[in-house]
Design a protein that fits this description.
It is built from 4 helices and 3 strands; from the N terminus they run H-E-E-H-H-E-H. It has 105 residues and is an alpha+beta fold.
Length: 105
């Protein structure tokens, strides 16, 4: 099973999601082609109502603790309620360019 599929399944099993997007951003980093090490997770759930950003991120990190301890090198989290998602125009925030390595050597 791919790391991306594991992430999707674990989140759906743990949080009542209204929307979920798991994006493999490994290609943006200095890793071999086909890697699954850098991900962005966009979760829309009303479970986040009344929670601060830190609490939301802690919840996702808790769910993915095993993967974060091994296969996942970096995880970007966008955790929103349905209302927040609507207010942001239903847009996924772009990721910054990788600053951690050089593909040119």
């Amino acid at each position: 099973m791919s790391v991306q599929t594991k992430i999707e399944e674990k989140i759906v099993d743990a949080i009542p999601v209204l929307g979920l997007e798991v994006i493999n951003e490994s290609y943006m980093h200095n890793v071999p082609p086909g890697s699954e090490s850098h991900f962005k997770v966009v979760i829309i759930s009303d479970e986040f109502t009344g929670q601060r950003l830190l609490q939301r991120h802690q919840r996702v990190n808790q769910i993915l603790a095993d993967e974060l301890a091994g296969e996942i090198h970096a995880l970007s989290i966008q955790a929103l309620t349905a209302e927040e998602w609507d207010n942001k125009g239903e847009k996924i925030m772009p990721s910054p360019k990788c600053l951690g390595g050089s593909k040119s050597g």
